[in-house]
Each structure stands twice: as C-alpha cells, then as structure tokens.
Amino acid sequence: MQNKSFHIGLGKKRSPLPAILLFIAVVIAVTACTNPFAPALEEDGGGQNLLGDQTTVEGVFQNMRYAYIFKDTLIYGRLLAPDFTFVYRNYSNLDTPRDETWGRDEEMFSTTGLFQTAQNLDLVWNEVIVSIGDSVLADVSRGFNLTVTLSARDVLRVDGRVNLRLRRAHPEENWLIERWRDESNF
Q: What topology is assigned to 57-184 in CATH?
C-alpha cells in the first residue's frame, strides 16, 4: 500500500507569487536599514545637518566646531591644507618669548590626543575681528572660547583668538586652513 500523502502536491505547479513577495520584502528591508558602522552625519533637533558648507569661510568654522564637539578627527583633518602650519607663542622663557611652529602631522597627532583624552569639548566661536581676502585667499581673526572637560574636577577654559589663513585653488573648491596662529591664554 502506498502512502498517498507522500504524493500529494507532487507534479503541481507552484505559483511564483510567494517567492516574488519574499524577494520584494527582503529588498525593502535591506534598503530601509541604516548601517550602524557608517551612520549618517549628525543632525540637530530640527533635522539640519551640523556640518557646514566648506566652500564658505563660515562653513570652515562650523566644521571645526563640529570636529571638536564630536571629537571627529576625520572632519578635522579635512580642514587642514597639506602644507598646514600651526604657530603659537612660547613663553617658557619670559625674557625671550618666541614663536614656535609645527606642521600638519604634528597638529593631527596633538588634536587626536586631545580628542581621546577629553571627556567633553565645547568650542564657541565669537565675533569676527578681521576678515580680508578674495575668492581664493582669506585671512580671518576671530575670538573663541574652548572648554575642555578632562574629568568632573578638571575643566580647562581657554579663551583667545585665532588668526587663520584660508586658501583654495579655485573659488568653487573647499577652503583649507593653511596657517593657524594661536593667540589664546593657554
């Protein structure tokens, strides 16, 4: 005696509809998901992108603030020209203070260390004191307040001014910081 239930359904044509629906559901699910390893850029509460348009001088300052607040070395590195120079006044010898400089690699190393060490960073840009230039070269002097929270009991406040030289090859390209002269209380 044969088992009739074994033969039921054999030889019948199946409808492709369930397979097509499954395929469509998978495609929709995959395209609707966000990748947690490549999240979207941060947005403020109003859905606005926090990154500035780096083809504007103000966009450079907005992106620097973003880089500090979110401790984002990738965004910070995109602000610096390949021949970037940081200049600061060394007061270790009060009789003969002198300007010291370092390049892009040292700046990235130093900033990465700051970003990794600080629990929180808050950079506030103040008034623009001087802004001169043209469509491919700009010199901007601007006040700032930087709060560096290392721990609940160790908070540093740095106030001062930056003098930035921004450059780009063509007016439609992004501005890059070529020189940064620090004039802060730190």
A: Nuclear Transport Factor 2; Chain: A, (3.10.450)
